[in-house]
């Protein structure tokens, strides 16, 4: 039986929760990344790259077997050798693994930064995707509160350089040292046990293994119980108080505004001391744009020596959504219209000269010569440069927006004639 050649082959659709970017969305994305790269160099953070895939144990140990990320959201599969592999859902665990396996202890304290795609199987919504992208900055091997402060100043400057600091608030808390946290945890368990009958099913499940997470429950049944729970401040040791005081003092000295949120927590046991989030009300439910904290126990949990560390991550898509409409100027510096084919070689010399002088430039040299100028004009570059023949002599013309860059492009282009 012959195939119906008229039958249209169905076009594959993108995987749900992924995105294709072109034009404005891609320009915003690139602007966030390039700004991050510029600022991280100002702070002396080295670029680091870690694999997109890791052994599943890296995340199962670091994120906790009982967390939603591990139990419901990770993209895990067995490879052909039978090893369980996971697409990374976050950066920190992979960087911690790399720190151990590559012997990077010799470089401690190590300041590193990276960015790239991450993967979580969750319900797609505004600012949240199944393949999403984050910026990440970590200081590994420093137990100084100044490391926490530097990361926060770094994040604050990044938001200002992006022009989105207005309306974004740094919320800050301390989880105390190990003794503080254990005492607080015991008090929380006692409090929640006494109100067990009023807790939601999710909070009851967390009570035994992750009681701190009940404090940030969004279930209305939990809120009165969580709001009446004891604060960490009652249980802070003098050392923990001094640590938090040093962080906040450094932030004040650097001019970084912050507010205390005594209910901001990190549920996993390896978190210590500083926990923070930069939040906004401009993105609806997805209000956190940068978040992080100190995780002094993670590297030991992954099999390394006890190593202090602190870091943060920020969603590139969310940061890009906050950019003003005119924040990203992706215009070319110059476009050349070749209005006579005999001038093509000369125009190519001009194009190369512009680019060698770090000017973004392109050329229009196809189609009807009479329409090339109009076609080039529609591109909207800072300088519109044309070249043609008049009485057998090369003739150049320029229309610019009056900017210094456009004037530079015009001068360079005219120099080839």
Quickly describe the structure.
It is found in: Cytoplasm. Keywords: Aminoacyl-tRNA synthetase, ATP-binding, Cytoplasm, Ligase, Nucleotide-binding, Protein biosynthesis. 36% of the residues lie in helices and 21% in strands.
Q: How would you characterize the overall build of this protein?
A:
It holds the Pfam family tRNA-synt_His. It catalyses: tRNA(His) + L-histidine + ATP = L-histidyl-tRNA(His) + AMP + diphosphate + H(+). By secondary structure, the protein is an alpha/beta fold. The protein has two domains: 240 residues, 2-Layer Sandwich (BirA Bifunctional Protein, domain 2); 81 residues, Rossmann fold (3-Layer(aba) Sandwich), CATH 3.40.50. It is 36% helix and 21% strand. The strands form three sheets. The chain has an eight-stranded mixed sheet. A four-stranded mixed sheet has the order 13-12-14-15. A hairpin with a 5-residue loop joins strand 3 and strand 4. It starts with 23 loop residues before the first helix and ends with a helix. 38% of the residues are buried. The mean pLDDT is 91.
Question: Could you list some keywords that capture this structure?
Answer:
single chain; 417 residues; BirA Bifunctional Protein, domain 2; Rossmann fold; 4-stranded mixed beta sheet; protein biosynthesis; EC 6.1.1.21; ATP-binding
């Amino acid at each position: 039986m012959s195939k119906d050649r008229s039958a249209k082959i169905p076009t594959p659709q993108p995987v749900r929760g992924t995105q294709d970017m072109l034009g404005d969305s891609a320009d915003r994305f690139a602007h966030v990344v390039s700004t991050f790269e510029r600022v991280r160099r100002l702070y002396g953070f080295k670029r680091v790259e870690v694999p997109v895939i890791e052994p599943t144990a890296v995340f199962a140990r670091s994120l906790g077997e009982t967390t939603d990320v591990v139990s419901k959201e990770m993209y895990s599969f067995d490879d052909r050798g039978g090893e369980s592999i996971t697409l990374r859902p976050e950066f920190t665990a992979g960087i911690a693994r790399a720190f151990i396996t590559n012997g990077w202890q010799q470089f401690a304290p190590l300041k590193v930064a990276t960015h790239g795609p991450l993967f979580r199987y969750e319900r797609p919504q505004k600012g949240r995707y199944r393949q999403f992208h984050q910026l990440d900055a970590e200081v590994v091997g420093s137990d100084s509160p100044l490391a926490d402060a530097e990361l926060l100043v770094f994040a604050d400057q990044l938001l200002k350089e992006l022009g989105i600091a207005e309306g974004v608030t740094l919320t800050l808390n301390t989880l105390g040292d190990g003794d503080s946290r254990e005492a607080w945890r015991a008090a929380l368990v006692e409090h929640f046990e006494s109100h067990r009958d009023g807790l939601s099913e999710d909070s009851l499940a967390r009570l035994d293994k992750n009681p701190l997470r009940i404090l940030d429950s969004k279930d209305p049944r939990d809120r009165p119980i969580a709001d009446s729970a004891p604060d960490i401040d009652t249980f802070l040791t003098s050392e923990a108080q001094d640590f938090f005081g040093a962080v906040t003092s450094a932030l004040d000295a650097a001019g970084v505004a912050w507010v205390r949120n005594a209910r901001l927590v990190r549920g996993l046991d390896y978190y210590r001391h500083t926990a923070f989030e930069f939040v906004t009300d401009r993105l609806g439910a997805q209000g956190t744009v940068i978040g992080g904290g100190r995780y002094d126990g993670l590297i030991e949990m992954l099999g390394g020596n006890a190593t202090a560390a602190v870091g943060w991550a920020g969603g590139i898509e969310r940061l890009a959504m906050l950019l003003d409409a005119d924040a990203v100027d992706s215009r070319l510096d110059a476009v050349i219209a070749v209005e006579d084919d005999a001038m093509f070689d000369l125009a190519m010399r001009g194009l190369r000269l512009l680019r060698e002088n770090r000017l973004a430039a392109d050329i229009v040299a196809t189609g009807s010569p009479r329409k090339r100028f109009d076609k080039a004009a529609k591109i909207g570059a800072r300088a519109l440069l044309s070249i043609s023949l008049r009485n057998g002599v090369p003739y150049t013309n320029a229309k610019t927006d009056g900017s210094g860059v456009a004037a530079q492009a015009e001068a360079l282009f005219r120099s080839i004639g």
